[in-house]
Amino acid sequence: MSESQTTMQQAASPEPGERRDLIILGGGLVGMTLALAAARSGITSHVIDRADPADLTAVGADGRASAISTASWNLFRNIGIADSLDALGCPIDSIAVTDGMKPGRIDFTPKPEEGSLGRMFANRDLRIALFDAARQEPNIAWHVKTEAVRRDRGPHGVEVELSDGRVLKASLLVAAEGRQSPTRDEAGFALAKWDYKHRAFVTGLFHEKPHDNTAWEIFYPAGPFALLPLLDDEEGRHRSALVWTVAEKDAAGITAMPDAMFVNEVASRMHGVLGAISLSAPRMSYPLRFHHAGHVIDDRLAVIGDAAHGMHPIAGQGLNLGLRDVGALLEVLTEGMRLGLEPGDAQLLARYEKWRSLDAFMVMSVTDGLTRLFGIPGRLPSAARRLGMGAVQRMPTLKRFFMDEARGMSGKLPALLQG
């Protein structure tokens, strides 16, 4: 048994009957970030995840990558994992937005002194950094390969029974289980939701030409086609992540394509911007749906991340929105606990909901609007879009607004996400 495995098992075995401040259901990127940020502030937690961390961090298990905004990077720096990630992320120095590669594109390129628009990380690298830090943190009790079979919330605390028979207690229950959150559904939260009837194909590409740290967002009527810069591999090969959105009716045919045919279809949509291409990661796909919870709190319950809001990946803001949830919830809890309130206090949860509801709704509404605007087919809509994009290209103030949104530096930011 490795030293890290031993550490994890020890961290996952608190004293019987030990009550902690939080029970976090879901140990993914958002849930574990909350646990680690809380631990750095002296807040204890139980983290419950049905997955095996070894499976999640195995080579080739997940070829996905995430754009980490400037604000989210500040969070990682403030909780002490930036040093382990710094050399693994590729800066996004500019974003090129185009309607089908026709004339009239927008180039978002900040001044050198303003820094990048974000960084691209392999999800595997993010998990490894979070998991390694969590294993060393005594304030985190990590329970893996198990799940909650009973959740009770009462006036004096919460109690969760695990599938292995253990019973955990805390002041506050946090649902970070992702889009299909059983805790959210059990609480009866109403969701605004719809199906885009699209599917995102995600993979990695090797390519002949360097990407120059530029992300491409190419809009086609069938859906956006994004190329996101990654660091060169150990052999010096240039790499980018691909997120290709297609209509659900076409998805089965694309899934059935052999790799060579898939690569040809991808290349035809790239118009040679990165030269010859080949696959660098396994192909994955998932359906695209929108959901937004009207409430993100209940008695001794807070909902964060994809459990609270699921959005189109068009702007790469899904994970960043979840990390803003983390920062806001932690700030509310730490300030309240400093005043002698417990984490499950209704006043604190109400403040969290008020803070996050408007921000999340605004980001998701803009993302949904862009998806629908660029999905209108035909020459006239395309011409109108390109006319508008040309106007934005010539307006520095408007471009700066969009760049601040991409960095996640707009609105009321939690302290952990500030510079």
Would you kindly provide a written description of the structure presented here, covering whatever features stand out?
This protein is an alpha+beta fold and 419 residues long. The protein has helices spanning 3-11, 29-40, 53-56, 70-78, 82-85, 123-135, 182-186, 248-256, 259-270, 318-338, 346-374, 379-393, 396-407, and strands at 19-25, 45-49, 65-68, 90-91, 94-99, 106-108, 119-122, 140-144, 148-154, 157-162, 167-175, 191-207, 214-220, 223-230, 238-247, 277-279, 284-293, 297-298, 301-303, 309-310. The protein contains 13 helices and 20 strands. Mean pLDDT is 86; it is low at 1-12. The protein is globular, with a radius of gyration of 22 Å. Helix 2 (29-40) runs parallel beside helix 6 (123-135). It has one domain: 3-Layer(bba) Sandwich (FAD/NAD(P)-binding domain), CATH 3.50.50.60. Strands 5, 6, 12, 13, 14, 15, 16, 17 and 20 form a nine-stranded mixed beta sheet that branches. GO terms for molecular function: FAD binding; monooxygenase activity; oxidoreductase activity, acting on paired donors, with incorporation or reduction of molecular oxygen. Residues 21-358 form the FAD-binding domain. Pathway: Cofactor biosynthesis; ubiquinone biosynthesis.
